[in-house]
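Show me a record, fold above all:
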Amino acid sequence: MLREAVRQTVTEVLQILLDADREAFLRQHEGRKNGYYPRKLETAFGQVKLAIPRDREGKYYPSLLQPYARRQVDVGEVAIALYAAGVSQRKAAEVMSLLLGHRYTHETISAITDQVLEAAEAFQKRPLPEEMAFVYL
């Protein structure tokens, strides 16, 4: 019950911020409103449904949301932390559904951990600039 109240408050605050952001953009660029489109966003308080404002010229995008992002919570970080702790993929999916209020399958968890591990490996193997000196102890 408390979680739902917090999620509703988060939804209302985000919606107010989105509307204010569009108003500021329209004042600066002398544009016109053009309604909203629906979008779901995963937050630390569960999934919220937002009405993303748009402008007539299609130039506006909310500054507080990353384009095409569906989560404010980094699911990859949560999945990797659970994986590193030795939690099975099925159990990790259960834990994440409790934490984030959205059901993830063990296949999704596997895909997320694979992507993050590939990115970490690419980071470790990247070439370092010549100016960068470091000591390994």
Residues 93 and 105 are 6 Å apart (CA to CA). Strands lie at 33-43, 46-55. The two ends are 50 Å apart (CA to CA).
